[in-house]
């Protein structure tokens, strides 16, 4: 039986390593997500309209938002364009898990979701904050003591309901939407509003007449861990997505480090450094 000489053996090993590095196939020889995107020149995101993450510009009807901008930039590094597959949010995770779409918009990590999809490194902090009336604030401190006994607005079914429930003697009103809660705060019908900082910043940018402002973060004693309030992109599980996920993680770390992501966020009123605090140095996995 013929044997390969040392030179030929080294060349073969290097060739296999190069293919593995490119992510063209899994160990079983099946094509990878990365190779399919590079061949089709299309990166498909399962998207539901939710400003300022992702929404259609009312004038141009084009999709925009910071998720769209971030992923358009990433798609370019793969020689691809971003394709929007619009669907209800409730259907988006299943679409990615079933490989009908390549990735989700940024979402919270949960144990249930981690069973069906893999997550990127974190790309944004969604800190919950205490918003108050900017003209006649009912409270001037973001401490639990200052919130005690106050009239607090939250949105039905949100994480902030659990936070408000931990405020002693608080009078809690649950509104059907963030917009309703902000109107209540702006008109002085409630003393404080517990909401994600993203939503407060976006509302002020879109409607400067709203008399609301961020007082500070929700007290740590009633807020969930910061890792659970970060945004992550979701991709299909397994070796099929690993080379793609490696490239996505590298890109997200780069733009968080070099100021590129902050420039994108600035366009949506998210100018505070709190949104990216700790993101560049965060691990690639949920912790």
From TrEMBL:
Keyword set includes Signal: yes
UniProt keyword Signal, yes or no: yes
PROSITE patterns (UniProt xref): PROKAR_LIPOPROTEIN
InterPro entries in the record: Solute-binding_3/MltF_N
Signal sequence extent: 1-20
Record key words, sorted: Signal
Residue span, Solute-binding protein family 3/N-terminal domain: 42-272
Protein's name according to its UniProt entry: Solute-binding protein family 3/N-terminal domain-containing protein
């Amino acid at each position: 039986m013929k044997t390969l000489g040392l030179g030929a053996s080294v060349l073969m090993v290097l060739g296999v390593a190069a293919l593995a590095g490119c992510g063209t196939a899994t160990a079983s020889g099946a094509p990878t997500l990365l190779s399919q995107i590079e061949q089709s020149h299309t990166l498909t995101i399962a998207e539901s309209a939710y400003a300022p993450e992702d929404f259609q510009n009312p004038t141009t009807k084009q999709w925009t938002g910071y998720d769209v901008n971030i992923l358009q930039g990433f798609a370019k590094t793969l020689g691809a364009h971003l394709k929007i597959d619009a669907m209800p949010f409730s259907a988006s995770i299943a679409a990615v898990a079933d490989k009908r779409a390549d990735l989700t918009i940024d979402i919270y990590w949960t144990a249930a979701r981690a069973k069906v999809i893999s997550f990127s490194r974190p790309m944004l902090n969604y800190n919950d904050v205490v918003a108050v009336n900017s003209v006649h604030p009912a409270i001037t401190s973001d401490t639990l003591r200052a919130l005690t006994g106050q009239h607090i607005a939250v949105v039905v079914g949100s994480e902030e309901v659990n936070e408000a429930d931990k405020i002693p003697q608080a009078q809690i009103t649950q509104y059907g939407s963030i917009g309703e809660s902000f109107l209540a705060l702006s008109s002085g019908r409630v003393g404080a509003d517990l909401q994600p900082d993203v939503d407060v910043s976006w509302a002020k940018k879109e409607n400067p007449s709203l008399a609301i402002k961020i007082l500070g973060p929700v007290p740590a004693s009633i807020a969930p861990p910061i890792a659970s309030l970060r945004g992550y992109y979701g991709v299909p599980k397994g070796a099929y997505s690993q080379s793609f996920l490696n490239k996505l993680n590298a890109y997200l770390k780069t733009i968080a480090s070099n100021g590129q992501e902050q420039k994108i966020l600035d366009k949506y009123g998210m100018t505070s450094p709190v949104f990216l605090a700790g993101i560049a140095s965060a691990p690639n996995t949920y912790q």
